Structures are given as C-alpha cells and as structure tokens.
Amino acid sequence: MTRGTEDQGPIRFAERVLALLDRGSFVATYKYAVLLGLMDLCLEGTSREGVPPDMVTTRQLAEKVVQLYWPQTMPFFASKRGKVLKQNTGNQAKILSDIVKFREGLRVNLASLTEARLSDRDGYERLVRDVEWTLILMPLPRVQVIGRREERVLYDIAWDLSIERSKRLVTQYQRTGGGPFDNRIMLKPRVSEYLVMLNGLLRPLVHREWVRMVAQINKMEEARLESFLFGADRVSMAAASTARSRWADTPRWTTSSRGRATPTTASTTWWWRTGRATGTSATFWRRAGTCRGGPSATPRVRRALGFLVSSRRSRGGTRIASRPWGWRGGSI
To answer: Residue 227: which of 88, 19, 77, 80 has the closest Cα?
Structure first.
C-alpha cells in the first residue's frame, strides 16, 4: 500500500485523480459517483471562513450518491421502448437496482427525489442504508487501487475488503448510531481544498468519462447521453457560489517572477507559468484537452473544460484567468 503525498500541489493532485479514473480496475460507474459525491460534499460543507471539511461520513456520501443516480434511473427513450441504462458490465449495478425498486414501490411515479423521500420516509431510509452498505463494501475500498497497489490519494478509511465478513457491525451502526464500526471518510491533507479549487476542471472530465463508460456498456453513441445523465448540475449552484465566495479571500497558488509556486489572494492562476513549479506534465494537459494549459488551447476546448478564459500579456507571458464551471461573474 502506498499512501498519498502529504502536500502534492493542486496540479499533481489532479493528475493522480485522473490516473485513478484511467487505470483503476472497475466494472461499474461507482468510482465516478464517489468522486463527484466527495466534490459536492466539500463544496456544500465549506464553512463561512472558507474552510472545506476534512471528513465526511458514509451516510452523507450515500445520500449524495442516491441524489446523483436518481435521475439516471428514469427510462432512456433513445428508441421506441425506453429502458433504464445499465451501469455495470455484468448485471445492473446494485445501487441503481435499489433505486429502481424504491421508485417502483411508490404509489405514484415521482420525478423529484425530495417528493419521493417525503412520500415514503421508511422506504427512503432503507434505500440509503442499502446504498451506504454497497459503498462501504465495494467502491470505497477499491477506488484508490491501481492494479494490485493501493494509492491513498483521496482519503483514509478504517476498513478494507474484509468488511464483507463484518456486515453485522455496519448494521448495528446503522440501527443504533453506535458500535465499533467507524463510518468516517478522512480526507487526505488539502484534498478537500483541491476538490473545491479544481471543481471546474475535474467535474466535466468525470462527466465525460462516466458518459463514455455508460455508452460502451449499452453499446450506443455518446451524443445524447450527457444531457440525459447530467442535464442539470447535480450540485446546487447556490452552494457552489457560496463556496466560491468563501474562497475569494483565501490563499491560492500562483507563481512569482522566478517561477516558484507561492500562495496569493489574487483571483487568477498563472497556469502558463506554473508548469515547472507545480510539476504539470504535458500528458495532463493533453488529456485535459489543452496543450500545457497555454494559449494554444482553443475557446471550444476551454468551454468544454468548464473554463471561462481571458488572456492578457503580463511580464512577457500569457496570464490565464480561470473560472469554475457554471461561473456567471464575480471573483472565485
């Protein structure tokens, strides 16, 4: 087992997250839901002082994953007969099957998760507990495994794959709120900060990879899938706006005239000149859809990445001012 670097820098962190998504061994889309769920919880949990949480619980993540998958359990009418899209290479992913079962148990077909929760509180509680157990059993111990090696880039947890033999401990915790099972997901140092900072970069990339996997599993084109899976932003724009405003006066990363990475309170990031200082590789920017993050990136690519980019000459270089996905004005 290899533990993540304590202070890896935002760009190196993004590279390692993308490596987990690319080279991890997965048969379902759970890895994408876990990552987006953690990003949403960090955004929503940012304090008034601009400090994101360093810990979330499996219960919180389960509720967020249900929220992410809820609209995806509606039939996809790409053909005459609609069907719920498969998100597992074998049988349907268990979390989606559990949500579909909960939907079918409702007296009326409710599109809103909030209405469904209020309509059947006991059924919703059973659903969240089942999803929580699935997350504890499968994706959480596996997300950070590449090949046979575990790289704890994102978080630490107090259990491993052997938890399957201790389900009674999880059940005890779910029923009583106590017991020996520790449901905390302890985020690695600065991970929550980086997830908020890089939300505008990572989220569109995760969406793209999620769409690609669903398209491959269901043997269909990707064109119509993204609007179906992610037609509306899954994280509240109000929450994202609040998190960004709290970050406005907190330290960022930029480079000095000598090319050294230093904190700053400015609302711009010198992506073009931080390549060496932060260890940015050309591979990272190619995979992100740009060429080393410099001015050669086209406006179409920048929009696809969720950046609203403005450039201007400064100290002989091009300064790229990045804005998070969904940004509509003001400082970040």
So the answer is: 77
Amino acid at 253: W
* pLDDT value at residue 79: 56
> Which residue is listed with tokens 């994280």?
235
Q: Which residues contact 14 (CB under 8 A, 6 or more apart)?
A: 194, 198, 201, 202, 284
DSSP state, residue 139? H
In degrees and rounded to multiples of 5, residue 269 shows phi and psi of -125, 130
Residues 68/222, Cβ–Cβ less than 8 Å? no
Question: pTM value?
Answer: 0.71
Radius of gyration of the chain (CA): 21
Q: Strand pairing of 2-3 and 149-152?
A: parallel
Question: Which amino acid would we find at residue 181?
Answer: F
Q: Where are the beta strands (DSSP E) in the chain?
A: 2-3, 55-57, 145-146, 149-152, 155-156, 184-187, 252-255, 261-264, 310-314, 317-321
Alpha-carbon distance of 167 to 181, in angstroms, equals 10
Is residue 192 a contact partner of residue 51, using CB atoms and an 8 Å limit? no
Give, in order, the Cα–Cα distances in Å from 70 to each of 74, 202, 207, 210, 234.
8, 21, 16, 15, 10
Burial (CB count <10 Å: 0-12, 13-18, 19+), residue 287: middle
Closest CA to 157 of 61, 17, 46: 61
Note whether 39 and 202 are within 8 A (CB).
yes
330: left (phi over 0), alpha (psi -120 to 50) or beta: left
Residue 270 near residue 255, CB atoms below 8 Å: yes
Token pair listed for 8: 């890896």
Report the chain (332 residues): mean pLDDT per 10 consecutive residues.
61 89 80 96 94 97 97 80 88 95 86 91 97 96 85 94 94 94 96 95 93 92 85 48 48 38 33 35 46 37 37 34 39 36
Q: Is 115 helix (H, G, I), strand (E, B) or coil?
A: helix
Task: Note the pLDDT of residue 222.
Answer: 87
Which residue type sits at 141? P
